[in-house]
Structure to design on (582 residues):
């Protein structure tokens, strides 16, 4: 790798993988619960929740970044409290990049999981009921395992999408090499520097390869589990 | 054990209004598709909540509108669904043990072995449902329901998704099950031949209502088919009275005796016997020099012609039989109600040990 990428570029690659992994894994339980809620219950305000969940998909990422700054920034409503009470700070930190990525890819995860839950046969859950399985038992032993292919492939696809997140990250946590400079931000930085086209092209190729690999993996996961 | 069902439920434009009580071990819920059979199953299992009604299984009130609703997971009523509904992420053994592990009163380990043997599942325990044939899936679903140690078993057209050959493969298992366990069964079907083999009592549904109800031997010999059940033939209990030296076993019943090729059952055993309407010929005088082993003296009790066929209900002692003859034969024999004649039985089916 040393021959192909400069230390700074290698940093950007590992940072991207770390930010995306944390973003996806941290969001997964929330995405699962949201999908479960939307697929099972017809409740008042379901439409509102649905719209809110899908908002990051259609909003300009820069707007999402700005909103994050308002809420989680140093003087933001939650940001100030989190820092004072728990010492947690998102701005200018890779965890902030993970938060932004998680939010942007949240709708992708929810959609994939919800699809898996809705296509999984409700009849199986009924059968489990008549055999004595209570709600939590059914969730853990029937619903969750059956949704697993959708869960895994949704997570992997969201991971691939998260690797490409740019607008929200740069707006929220800025472009700091080694801390918040993920692959797309490194490409942007390379293009800003004179004579950076070669480096940008290398990083771009790397991004394409990563995307192909993870999208393929997501497909494979959806097809292979429980078959 | 008895089952008492009273239900009123609106399902779209369809109004379900059902009331029946049955004491038979195997009760068939019979009727065309769309009659409301599956809705009744869902209500008994607790998967739906009727607007009005009361369901009592044995002594236990499992549902009473506005008062009692025992959830399906606590109702101890297992269901075998038409589409088997095996859990695809578990192997056959895990499927079988699913209900067993959650049962309040667990059957012992010997029972698991017994059910596996009863249903012939030894060789497929480690396989996933996906790779099983339709017949194998049905057997696993049946075993899984049995091992949940339910108070009652609901079979919702368990054979409807199978072709004739597969159904013939499962029916003996169901017969064995009905015979060996004393578990009350509610068997939903629109196939009269399945009902004849398994049921003690029949409840006929039509358009969301109970059209008729009665013991199987009455319902299947009703040539006027007022109940909606086609008169398939006679179903009655007989006693194995003697194993003769000529290789035949003698079955006595109220009305005479039947001779059949030697049976495995010991003398004294009670058996369910079926005589299909097509398998009884009629003769005005006692025939001689024929190969048939069984000739029964009968009285004509009822006749119904339809098209080129006629169904003749016969009384042999107090046992009802049905003979299906051609309309031409009926005219030629000048059949009338009250006539004495002879029924020549071409084939006897010994269905199962009587309850």
């Amino acid at each position: 790798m040393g021959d192909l990428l400069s230390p700074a570029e290698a940093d950007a690659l590992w940072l991207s993988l770390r930010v995306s992994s944390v973003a996806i894994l941290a969001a997964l339980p929330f995405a699962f619960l949201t999908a479960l809620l939307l697929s099972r219950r017809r409740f008042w305000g379901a439409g509102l929740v649905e719209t809110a969940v899908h908002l990051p998909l259609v909003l300009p990422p820069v707007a999402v970044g700005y909103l994050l700054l308002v809420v989680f920034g140093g003087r933001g409503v939650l940001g100030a409290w989190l820092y004072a009470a728990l010492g947690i700070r998102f701005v200018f930190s890779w965890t902030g990049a993970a938060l932004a990525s998680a939010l942007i890819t949240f709708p992708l995860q929810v959609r994939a999981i919800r699809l898996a839950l809705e296509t999984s046969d409700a009849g199986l859950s009924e059968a489990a009921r008549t055999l004595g399985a209570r709600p939590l038992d059914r969730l853990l032993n029937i619903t969750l395992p059956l949704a697993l292919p959708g869960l895994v492939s949704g997570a992997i696809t969201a991971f691939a999408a998260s690797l490409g997140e740019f607008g929200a990250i740069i707006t929220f946590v800025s472009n700091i090499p080694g801390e918040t400079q993920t692959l797309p931000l490194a490409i942007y930085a390379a293009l800003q520097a004179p004579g950076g086209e070669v480096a940008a092209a290398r990083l771009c190729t790397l991004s394409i390869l990563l995307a192909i690999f993870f999208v393929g993996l997501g497909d494979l996961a959806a097809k292979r589990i429980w078959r | 054990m008895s089952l008492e069902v009273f239900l009123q439920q609106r399902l779209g434009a369809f109004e379900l209004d059902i009331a029946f009580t049955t004491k038979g071990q195997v009760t068939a819920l019979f009727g065309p598709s769309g009659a409301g059979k599956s809705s009744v199953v869902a209500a008994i299992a607790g998967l739906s909540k009727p607007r009005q009604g009361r369901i009592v299984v044995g002594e236990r009130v499992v549902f009473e509108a506005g008062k009692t609703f025992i959830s399906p997971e606590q109702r101890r009523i297992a269901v075998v669904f038409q589409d088997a509904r095996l859990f695809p992420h578990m192997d056959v053994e895990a499927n079988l043990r699913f209900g067993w592990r959650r049962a309040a009163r667990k059957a012992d380990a010997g029972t698991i072995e017994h059910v596996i043997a009863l249903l012939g599942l030894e060789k497929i325990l480690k396989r996933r449902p996906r790779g099983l044939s339709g017949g194998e899936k049905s057997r696993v679903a049946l075993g899984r329901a049995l091992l949940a140690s339910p108070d009652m078993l609901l079979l919702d057209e368990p054979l409807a998704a199978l072709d004739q050959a597969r159904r013939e493969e499962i029916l003996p298992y169901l017969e064995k099950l009905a015979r060996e366990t004393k578990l009350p069964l509610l068997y939903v079907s629109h196939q009269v031949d399945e009902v004849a083999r398994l049921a003690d009592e029949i409840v006929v549904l039509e358009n969301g209502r109970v059209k008729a109800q009665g013991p199987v031997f009455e319902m299947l010999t009703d040539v006027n088919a007022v109940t909606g059940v086609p008169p398939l033939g006679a179903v009655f209990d007989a006693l194995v009275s003697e194993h003769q030296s000529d290789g035949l076993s003698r079955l006595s019943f109220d009305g005479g005796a039947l001779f059949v090729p030697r049976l495995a059952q010991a003398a004294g055993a009670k058996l369910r016997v079926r005589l299909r309407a097509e398998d009884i010929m009629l003769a005005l005088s006692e025939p001689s020099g024929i190969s048939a082993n069984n000739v029964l003296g009968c009285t004509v009790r009822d006749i119904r012609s339809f098209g080129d066929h006629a169904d003749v209900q016969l009384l042999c002692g107090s046992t009802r039989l049905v003979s299906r003859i051609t309309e031409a034969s009926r005219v030629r024999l000048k059949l009338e109600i009250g006539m004495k004649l002879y029924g020549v039985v071409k084939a006897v089916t010994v269905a199962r040990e009587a309850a």
Q: What stands out?
A: Chain A has one domain: 7-224. Chain A touches chain B through 19 residues (CB under 8 Å). The radius of gyration of chain A is 20 Å.
